[in-house]
Structure formats: C-alpha cells, structure tokens
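Input/output pair, single chain:
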Amino acid sequence: MDKKDYLLDQFYRLAAIPSPTGMTHEATAHVLAELTRLGFQPERTRKGTVVVCLGGVGHPLLLSAHVDTLGAVVRAVKGDGHLRYSRIGGFDDNNIENENVRIHTRDGKVFTGTVYSTKASGHVWGNQTGTPRSDEFLEIILDEEVSSRAEVEALGIHSGDFISFDPRTVITDSGYVKSRHIDDKASAAVLLTLAREVAEGRVTLGRKVYLSFTVYEEVGHGGSGLEALSDVEDMLAVDMGCVGADLSCKETQVSICAKDSAGPYDWDFTNELIARCRRLDLDYAVDVYPSYSSDASPALKAGMEIRFALCGQGVFASHGYERTHVKGMLNTLALVTDTAEHL
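Output:
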C-alpha cells in the first residue's frame, strides 16, 4: 500500500470508530495497535492520550492530533420514548438534523436512531422553516418499537449514555474526502502515516520526535497532561484549516494558523513552517481563525515552556458534514515530515 492509500485507509478506519469526547477508548485502541504493529512502543496515559516516541536525537518536537470528536449524550428520555440530547463540543444544531446516530449504553449495548425535528413532517405540521434547531426542537427517535420512557429504559438506555454521529465517509474519484470527523481524524491519519514512513525507513528523523493523540480537544483540555513530556522544545498541533469567508485556505492546501481565539502562535516557529512550504513548493495558506482553538493552548496553560504552531489540511463546513481533499492531507503530511526531518 503506497503512502497515499495508507493515509486514506487510516482515515477511513478512524472515522468509522465512534469516539465522541469522553468515549474514545476504541479509537485510542486502534492507534495503539497500529503503532505497535509498526514496531513502536506507544503508551496510553491515565487521561487516555496516546503518546509515542518515534526516535531521533536532540531538539525534541511534539506533533499532536486528536481522535475525540463531536457527539452528544442522552439528556433525558421523553415520555413518548424519544430522546433529548446534550451536545459534546461546539457544533450548530442545524448540522445534525436528519443524521443517523448510534446510542452507546453504559453496559455496552448499541442502538441506532435518527435526529429529527419535533415537527418533522410538512404534511402534518406545515411549513416549519422558521422553527429553531436546538435540543428543544430536535430529538432522537430510536429504531426500536418503543413509545414510552419505560420501554426505552427497559432496553437499557438512560440519561448519560453516549451518542455518536454516523460519519458517512465518501472519497471521490476527484480526491475529495467528505465525512464527519475529518476534524481531526484526518490529521491523526497524517501522524500515523509519518510513523509508518519512519518505521519503514523512508523518513530519517533529524530530531527527537514524539506523537500524541489526545482525547479531550473538543471540550478544551486535550493538550493538558502533555507537560509530562518535559524535554519538548517545539509543539506543532496538527489539526485543520478553516475554509470560508475572509480566509484564503482551500481544501487542497495545508493551512498555517497565525492566530486563533487564544491568541497568536509563535512568530519564529510559524515563520519556519512558511519557509518550509516555500522550499518544498507546497500549496499552503496562512490564515487567522477567530473562532478556533487547538491542543496548543491548554498545553501552554498547563505549563509547557515551548514554541508552538498549528497546521492542517483545509476543511470546508467544519463541525458539520466536512470536506477536505487528499492533496490537502498530503501537503500537511509533507510539511509535518519536513519539520521532523530537519531543524
């Protein structure tokens, strides 16, 4: 399997694993197993983050991606057997209407359902275009013959059970990748691909390199705990680039973030990333993301004394049904690889 095929295969596999923040054990198990298969010795921290050293000597670099995703939990079982949800992460409720979901109970059962408007049928309710979309006006209807709270609870479904959204992953012949959870499983696949390139001798590290796969990024504290890697000098959060108004990034590019909602990224480290893109003739963009944060911010707040920067493939419709392009993923991989190979 060549580099591109491996990259897309790992993304497809990761996207298919339900891992809303707080329920990431299956995704981290996949990462642990793959890194072990490649010959490394990864560890899962008490918090759940997967950390591995790829080797190399001097000027330690930490490359971080996250495998937790948006999702929800069951807030309440309604009297008619429909479910009210509570969001995990910052998404717009408009982006989940009519999505198929899975409900994961605390005792290991999995049920399917769909997010519907409480007034779903135009034939019944008339035009509902102006009805707000929120957990008050959207609900989850189970694919089970139930019509009461007691019948749902008899299945084993209760408040606090987790809800994952089906990824609906599609990779087109033209190279577009459409899926939920591109944020940030595309970048997790990028880091796994780098690990494979190192393991199979196609990449020689020019410095000590750690990878981390965090599990609480979507709720703001994924990067805390990484301060245990006390020798790290540089941290590159490999996440995603936003595509939209006032932004120059496209899905085919690697995006370098100059500033997000937490403030500016390190001047020198960011300039080095830009210089690497120019030297490698990568298709890239530099942008500012005012409604965005990454694992770098909580890592800094937790006490890491590091230079820090952010890059990732351009992602359209972020926190919805997202879209990127294999070119953007490969450009991101090339930038990350060069950062690991050369000071």
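The mean pLDDT is 97. The two ends are 29 Å apart (CA to CA).
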